[in-house]
Sequence to fold (292 residues):
Amino acid sequence: MAHNPKDLAEIASVIAHDLKTPITATRGLIEALQALGPLTDKQQDYSERALANLEKMNTLVNRLVEWAWIDADPPLDRQDCDLRGLIHSAVRLMESTAAERSIQIDVQLPDNLGLIQAEHRRLDHVMTNLLSNAVKYNREQGSVTVTADGNDDYVRVSVSDTGAGIAPEHQGRVFERFYRATADEAVRRVEGNGLGLAIVKSVIEQHDGQIWLESAIGQGSTFTFTLPRRADVRERRAVSGEASYSVLDQAEGYDYIVPERANEESDSVDDDIQEPSEIDKSAADRDETTAL
Ligand SMILES: Nc1ncnc2c1ncn2[C@@H]1O[C@H](COP(=O)(O)OP(=O)(O)OP(=O)(O)O)[C@@H](O)[C@H]1O
Ligand SMILES: [Mg+2]
Fold:
């Protein structure tokens, strides 16, 4: 059994390549069969279901490859990244899926959100996965709201939905690989592999950011992440031993504190999920620290 992520990434890409060829060939054969028509209703139904299953297989293969690639943690290719543009294009891609269930996606971004030094491809996965969850775990005619703000050093993005919410006993585990809150009726009906949020968390941490969730049953969920604007923000703080918390400008509707644990590593998912009470506590601790 290979444990080295780089080996796993290589194995996954070989498997993906080997699976993609028969998937494409089978899709072509079914489409050729449909073109022979006219098919009976049953033949049409079976061929469409076969195509739908192939599509699922294809999506799973793509996801596994992405996961293995991100897990192998190739060096970050940080470039100036237009977060506003990235968010808008991820939303555009999700709009037709959302519209199928009459879900409205509302984007509220400041004009001056600015650039961040990040890897576009990986951040795109973050937005796509969070939006995909916000749509697929939502209710018919629900809504998704994407907001963002930032200061000179950090940006913060939130994706909120009006879905069933995540029960407290699952909240600490949803960022684990292959974890699905399948005990919840609303989740059981939705397709998924339990990989999306593990990828999201890993990408955010590779960029020295943080992610957490707030959720209430029956009301919906909000996933929020913060990212340093530049790689040197974190380094600067680590070297200078600056205060261990930084505060984003208290923009409308927000009063969160962003922990900036320069000298502390956290292995626990729970540590990253901050209930407002804990955030307030962080604020109190910070005030004590800076008052010294
Ligand atoms: N917005 C949300 N609302 C309610 N539950 C959610 C939401 N986002 C995630 N979850 C819960 O967290 C679990 C893990 O999410 P994750 O995105 O990692 O996997 P998934 O959506 O099941 O599959 P995929 O690998 O296709 O993303 C989900 O199965 C679901 O139980
Ligand atoms: Mg998902």
The first strand starts at residue 79 and ends at 82. Residues 5-36 form the longest helix (32 residues).
